Every structure is written in structure tokens, then in C-alpha cells.
Amino acid sequence: xxxxxxxxxxxxxxxxxxxxxxxxxxxxxxxxxxxxxxxxxxxxxxxxxxxxxxxxxxxxxxxxxxxxxxxxxxxxxxxxxxxxxxxxxxxxxxxxxxxxxxxxxxxxxxxxxxxxxxxxxxxxxxxxxxxxxxxxxxxxxxxxxxxxxxxxxxxxxxxxxxxxxxxxxxxxxxxxxxxxxxxxxxxxxxxxxxxxxxxxxxxxxxxxxxxxxxxxxxxxxxxxxxxxxxxxxxxxxxxxx
Amino acid sequence: xxxxxxxxxxxxxxxxxxxxxxxxxxxxxxxxxxxxxxxxxxxxxxxxxxxxxxxxxxxxxxxxxxxxxxxxxxxxxxxxxxxxxxxxxxxxxxxxxxxxxxxxxxxxxxxxxxxxxxxxxxxxxxxxxxxxxxxxxxxxxxxxxxxxxxxxxxxxxxxxxxxxxxxxxxxxxxxxxxxxxxxxxxxxxxxxxxxxxxxxxxxxxxxxxxxxxxxxxxxxxxxxxxxxxxxxxxxxxxxxxxxxxxxxxxxxxxxxxxxxxxxxxxxxxxxxxxxxxxxxxxxxxxxxxxxxxxxxxxxxxxxxxxxxxxxxxxxxxxxxx
Lengths: 241, 321
Known about the structure:
heterodimer; A: alpha/beta; Rossmann fold; six-stranded mixed sheet; four-stranded antiparallel sheet; 39% helix; 25% strand; B: mainly alpha; MetI-like fold; 13 helices; 77% helix; 0% strand
């Protein structure tokens, strides 16, 4: 479904991504991990065009996202994204956050958008908070709203950029529970995360990155039991400690 | 000090007749000042917002157009801009329009010129605020700025609450007198230039404090990314996500700008528009009571502006939550 072909990215002289290739099939859950600054966030933001790249290519459903007839807004509305810092719209209520793009981008009418939104809020357990503003919610609640907001666009793929790393420990599980459910329903997911418990539970594959390169890509079980590279062993060792 | 404090003049009837008193004349000037402030503020908001969006637009040409506007109207002193709008523009325009402008009654003409000059001058500052507001979008940033102790010292507020021209006149006329009296300096020592410099530095640094503060409140691409990730195009993201937040964040600073214009209106003095300041000064010049009249004018500006500043602070507290 998504194919990254030896993608490289530079910030001026600094090479942020080196020759990265990954393929993600429909319904697969792929975890991207590695030390901070390894380029994993940049890599998944390439998929919906939030970051650009200088060489290589990215295919979405077999078609290059760089080809002339691919419009980025069109592509992005089919790819959901959840951010580390939630990025809810603070001037809109929870319900407003879930309906604005449905109405303005998908041109759904207000009643339909609202119905869809309430259904999703139900699903993430926040129906009662529909009228509140983001600042009135806890971090965990905000992130669940953000997931619901992405789902309101009926995405084909979901990107998660460290969805739990800005959360207090006691709130991480409520967000992960929503993500596990999503994975089990067959959503195609690309997740940058260090939640190894989550990874073991749902991931099909793990991509380990360091210094802009993909060091190893492996079957989830195999990666955790016996990582092939020295860097990955070192990294996992630090995580467990 | 043996000065002739003739406050009674305020209640006396105007020399030209019509039964009006001088205090009525001053109040009339104050009304004109208010009309000028409001019209110029509206124009500045409109022009500033348009160019601010241009500045934030990801196109070099748009950015360059916006930058040129800001640079032109911000780097030329307001007083020069008044002269240009008043004397130069009618001459440069096609003769028909020029003649038409000249045929308007002088007082309307001067009023329009003042609105244009103030509007475009202030628009340049608002443009930068809009751009900063768009590029920024605070939240945790506001708290971070507060954590850095970034509140305006009261001294700055006081300086900002008195119009520049008055500050200059004060420093030129009053301060040297006081210094001479206190230190017994001989009249041959010229300290007026130094006092004027001090006035300018104080005022400019007050603006700087504001601008730097606005610059720190910011830097988050997240909202743009979130809007884009939902499939919104640039226009939609700007219209539904970015501008509503930017305007809310900038409301206090826009109000501050309104106060600034209120002060800058005093500059119309130089093109003979009878605003509050000029009328007050005229009385002083005629009766040789410039000092008390300047003090009176200063006090009125100060009361109005610090009242408005209080309103702005209240607004800031409300939008901060």
C-alpha cells in the first residue's frame, strides 16, 4: 500500500534520511523506533507530504506521491495523522474539532458530520465531553480526541508520531487501548513509538532506525527476542533498564 | 517658580465669539481625535491583515510585496508620511483627481490625509503582527514567556501612555527648564538635544519590548500540520484554523496598537489639523501658558491611554486561559 524507495532527505548540508526503503502492506502495523534524532518522525511525515525529500520516491497505492496529478490535500485526507502534541484546534470545541474537516473538506452536511463525530467519541469513550474545549481535557483525553478527529475522515492509513510520549504515564494506556483496537480492526498503521508492550501486542514488523538510516527491519517477535544489529541490542537494553 | 498658572482661561468664552468656551473648543478637538483614531485603526487593520497574510504566504513574490510595504511604511517617519500624503500625493495623481482633491474643503482633506497616513503607517506594524501571529500560535509558549519574566515594566507603560510629540515637547521645553533651575546651569549650555534623544530612546525601547515579546510567543508548525493532515488546503487551513486563533491571540496587541494611534494622532499638529493637542497648544501659545496647557494635554492623554491599557491587560488575562 505504501512503498518508500531509497528516500533521502537533507537539511542544507545535514543528511536527515539516508536511502530509506520500507514497504507497508494493507492492514499491516509497522512500528518505527530508534534513538531520538534518528529520523523516524521525518520518515513517516514524508508519507503525507508534511516533510519533503530530495531523492528516492514514495508510492501510495502504486502511484508516486510526487506525480503531477496527485494533489497533496487529496492524499492527506485519506491518510490520518496523530501528533505527539495532539494539535487539537484550541478555538473549537471537541465536537468542532471532529466536524470541521468533515464539513469543509469532505463537504458533509452538519447533521451527518455530527452523527459521525458522536459515534467516534463514543468509541473513544468521550461522548460526554463533546461540548468541552481541548484545554479542559487531560492529555490522554486530548489524544483520544485527536485520534477520533483523524478517524472522522475515514482514513485508509493512520500515521502516529510518538502519540504517547507527551503523556503522563497513567494516561498512556487509555490511548494505547484505542490504538490496539484500531489495529485489531485491520487499520493500516505506521507508528513511531517506544511503547514496546504495544509493539509486541499488535505490530507485524519493526523498523529500527539510527542516524537517518534504517538499521534493521524485522518480524516483531524476532526483533525483540534477538535483534540482529549491535545498535538495536544496545537501544533495547537501554529501554528495558 | 513664579509661573502664571492661568487655568481660568478654560472657562472663558472664545475670542472669535459664538458663545463657546475654550474648554468646549478643546473637547471638540478631542472628538476629532477619537474619530481619527477609529478610522485610522480600521484602515490599518484591513491593510495590515492583507499584507500580513501575504508575508506569511509560502510564495517569495507575495512575501516580497508584503516586505516592501512594511519597509516603506514603517521606516519612514509618520510625520514625513503626513507631508507626503498631504502635499505630494495630490500632485502626483492624474490632474483630474488632483484637482478634485484640492476642491474638497480643507478640513475634510486634512482629515482624509490623516486617516490615510496613520492607517498605512500603523498597517505596516499590524502586518508584522499578523505575520508573527500566524507563524506563532502560542499556548505553552505564553506560559514559557511568562516563566521568563516577560512582563512590561510599569515604567514603559507610563512612557507609552504619553504621545511622542508631547514627550518631545516636554523634554525640549520643560525638562531643560527644570534642570537649569535645579542645577543652576547657565542658559548657554544646550541640553535640549540630549533630552530629545532620551525621549526617543525611552519610547522606542517601549515598542521594542512589545515586539520581542510577540516574537517569543510562538513558533509552532503543529497547527498547520494538523490542518494539512486533515486534507485542508492552504486557504481552508488559513480561514478555519489559523486566522481565528491568530486573531484571538493578537487581540490585545491590536488594542495596544489602537492606543498607539491615539497617541500618534497628535502628530497631525504639524499640518494644522485642530485636534485636541493642537487646540490645547494654541491656547497656551496665545496666552503664554504653554507649560500648563501641555501638562493638561499630557494628563488627558495619560488618563485615556492608561485606562485603555488596563482594558488590554484585562483582555490578555482572559485570552490567556
